[in-house]
Specification:
4-stranded mixed sheet; Peroxisomal Thiolase, Chain A, domain 1; 370 residues; 12 helices; single chain; acyltransferase; alpha/beta; 6-stranded mixed sheet
């Protein structure tokens, strides 16, 4: 099938102002460090005395002696920040990089993990803040949202329904996990945005494969609680399905990547660069091992950001372009997946994508909290 060229025109990232290294937790919660192997993070990623059963286990094995499971640092929201403030910064930077105004945007699609309001996504609130006149709606694929939103936006532009679609992705794990829950140690916050428009020649999205991740519905759960001021808040907890992450990782990766490559009409060997979401320190090594590709053909951002959910995919694209690892007309494969959501891969021919200035390079507000 021949598609009209539609793809990413610009990309921007936005991060909170607080950087936390592992020392913060070591000094503040020494008793949790001592008991780490009995806590949530260790239970989620553990072999429980059994030998490695698959490629995921094999790559996870070297990290099991580390209470942080390979996490080095993460960026978290301050009291003055929110997912909406991060989304607003990323959205305006993406527009500026594309040399567009908000009046040039026909549609905005927002994926927030998690939104600010209980029961409502961020789309209408962000649209009001940006002054958007056109359409805006939410899309939820949990941590696999980015490839699905890109697929949706590209299809709508290709169909002639909209000209320019602004996609905004955010993750605010620090607001839904308690700091004393060791699972929060491998989580961070952030936002990304990109503009989807018509492209040149044969650039843009060439093929996508998406499947649901119903097998992972028990990995996490949400409950409504009250904070100290009596306000309602959502709190996430790990469930009994963590083992399913290890058992299904290979299947989801293979089905989606092989399906997207076939849909694009190319081969694995023709892909110039691979961008996997990296929610764990060993995910990149797992993906390259399973697909049997050279690790130099991908990038690993986990040491910089920890697990920032669907924003990882946007950050991967940004950093790969910023570091000169992908160039115009390269074939690029992106993959993202999330519990109780979707796993999805897309193959695109990279265009002339404008990059906003990285916020952590330009901001003087960032501070280290030890």
């Amino acid at each position: 099938m021949v598609h009209s060229p539609v793809g990413i025109r610009s990309i921007a990232l936005s991060f909170p102002t607080i950087r936390r290294t592992n020392n913060y937790y070591v000094e503040k919660y020494p008793e949790l460090i001592a008991q780490a192997e009995q806590k949530g993070l260790a239970r989620m990623f553990s072999l429980t005395g059994t030998p490695p059963a698959n490629e995921f286990d094999m790559e996870m094995l070297p990290y099991l002696s580390d209470p942080f499971r390979g996490t080095i640092e993460r960026w978290v929201l301050s009291h003055e920040e929110s997912s909406l403030t991060l989304e607003y910064c990323a959205a305006t930077d993406a527009l500026n990089a594309a040399k567009l105004s908000i009046n040039d945007i026909d549609l905005m699609i927002v994926a927030s993990v998690w939104p600010e309001q209980i029961g409502f996504g961020n789309a209408a609130f962000l649209a009001r803040k940006l002054g958007l006149v056109g359409a805006a709606w939410n899309l939820d694929g949990t941590c696999g949202s980015t490839p699905v939103v890109l697929q949706t936006a590209s299809a709508l532009v290709r169909a002639g329904e909209y000209r320019n679609v602004l996609v905004v992705i955010s993750c605010s794990y620090s607001r839904v996990f308690d700091e004393q829950d060791t699972v929060s140690w491998f989580l961070g916050d952030g936002a990304g945005a990109f503009v989807v428009s018509s492209m040149e020649g044969n650039q843009g999205i060439l093929g996508t494969k998406t499947v649901h991740t119903g097998a992972l519905c028990e990995v996490v759960s949400a409950e409504l609680t009250k904070d100290e001021q009596g306000n309602s808040r959502v709190r996430m907890q790990t469930g009994n399905g963590a083992k399913a992450l290890r058992e299904t990782a290979a299947e989801f990766l293979s089905i989606c990547c092989e399906g997207a490559i076939a849909s694009a009409g190319v081969t694995l060997e023709q892909i110039d660069f691979f961008l996997f979401n990296t929610p764990t320190a060993w995910m990149t090594r797992f993906c390259t091992r399973l697909l049997n590709i050279n690790p130099e053909r991908t990038i690993d951002l986990y040491p910089l950001y920890a697990n920032i959910g669907p924003v990882l995919t946007v950050a991967n694209l940004y950093h790969a372009a910023h570091l000169g690892k992908i160039h115009e007309n390269d074939l690029v494969l992106i993959y993202g997946s999330g519990a109780a959501g979707v796993a999805s891969a897309s193959v695109m021919r990279w265009g002339n994508v404008a990059l906003a200035l990285h916020p952590l390079e330009s901001s003087k507000l960032a501070k280290t909290v030890f």
